[in-house]
Amino acid sequence: MTLVVDGMRRSHGAFELGPIDLAVDEEVLSVLGPSGCGKTTLLSTIAGTVTPDAGTISLGGLDLTGRPPEKRGTVLVFQDGALFPHMTARENVAYAASSEKRVEELADALEIDAVLDQRADTLSGGERQRVALARSLAADPDALLLDEPLANLDAPIKRRLRDELRPLLASLDVPVIYVTHDQREATAIGDRLAVIADGELLQLDTPDEVFAHPATPFVASFTGSTNLFRGAVVETGTGRALDWNGRRLDAAIGGATVGETVQFCIRPEYVTLAADETRNSVEGAITRRVFEGDGYLLDVVPDGGDEAVRLALSPPAYERAGLDERDRVRLALPADAIHVIGGVEECSAIGPARR
Ligand code: ATP
């Protein structure tokens, strides 16, 4: 069964969502975007609680556009789970389930057996969210719409549930749309990833492809490719390369022409420390170091430049290198990790080269 959103638009005052075109098969589509970009509006139009201004929504070939929410076969789960507070977890799940056996199956899958007879308003956040998910699955939806279901949970529970959700959602064999503003959640859970900003669908592809080849500067920065620069395409005699503040960088240039100014990016985890001077290497001083728990981020300003290059190192790699703030280092920017996004003019409609 395929969920199809065709030319859908919806405005709220000055905010405009769409036109959105999506086809979600029996897969998990993560929708990633910043707060206020229209993620909830998208889910609500599919669920039928918000009426689109234009376009159609269909599921398995059936036009849902004018149908009331309860006749769509879709289930929408919000971040607070919206359980009946005075009912037990079991009663909440049973409310939607076809049999007691189904309640037991879901309790088992979501590991809520131990709290089944506890009142919903006494459950912890993680337990509440598991019960809410069990209840939504109990309804055997034809399409499942999840709106930031893990947003209110603390990091360890969120990570655990995230890892457990992926196989559970994939096993449903129905279209699932999973909305989040957390890139790790989006990539861990989705078979494909849609990135939305300011009501516009900017890119829809596999998570790997979106991360390796972001379509716009916004997608690059929102998915963590924080090294976003401008350079000119130059002819080298053997092909085309980038001129970046007077430095020559080998890269796959794609469709850009010689003389064109383009934006390009490289993910911090693909920048490496280089022992020797090589092609695509730059030297400079570390101006900033941030420890993120599972790794270090180092900002290095190349000599004669003012744009810092960010490098991500695992703790062992950082310790091996014996680095400190203000140390001088040589970085390699591998040609195959540099992604040319597009001409500056076509990119400038979406955002500045660097924030
Ligand atoms: P968040 O991640 O913060 O939940 P979101 O991406 O889900 O945000 P939406 O809730 O879809 O974004 O909101 C998109 C825009 O539409 C926002 O500017 C919001 O203020 C506006 N909006 C949403 N619903 C309404 C409404 N019922 N009336 C007026 N404006 C609305």
Automatic annotation (TrEMBL):
PROSITE patterns according to UniProt: ABC_TRANSPORTER_1, ABC_TRANSPORTER_2
Enzyme nomenclature, EC number: 7.3.2.6
InterPro entries listed in its UniProt record: AAA+_ATPase, ABC_SmlMolc_Importer, ABC_transporter-like_ATP-bd, ABC_transporter-like_CS, Mo/tungstate-bd_C_term_dom, P-loop_NTPase, Transp-assoc_OB_typ2
Main enzyme class: translocase
GO cellular component entries: ATP-binding cassette (ABC) transporter complex
Membrane topology: Peripheral membrane protein
GO molecular function, one term: ATP hydrolysis activity
Keywords: ATP-binding, Molybdenum, Nucleotide-binding, Transport
Extent of the signal sequence: none
Residues forming coiled coils: none
SUPFAM superfamilies listed in its UniProt record: MOP-like, P-loop containing nucleoside triphosphate hydrolases
Intracellular or extracellular location(s): Cell membrane
Subunit text: The complex is composed of two ATP-binding proteins (WtpC), two transmembrane proteins (WtpB) and a solute-binding protein (WtpA).
Family (UniProt): Belongs to the ABC transporter superfamily. Sulfate/tungstate importer (TC 3.A.1.6) family.
Alphabetized PANTHER family for the sequence: SPERMIDINE/PUTRESCINE IMPORT ATP-BINDING PROTEIN POTA, SPERMIDINE_PUTRESCINE IMPORT ATP-BINDING PROTEIN POTA
Designated name of the protein: Molybdate/tungstate import ATP-binding protein WtpC
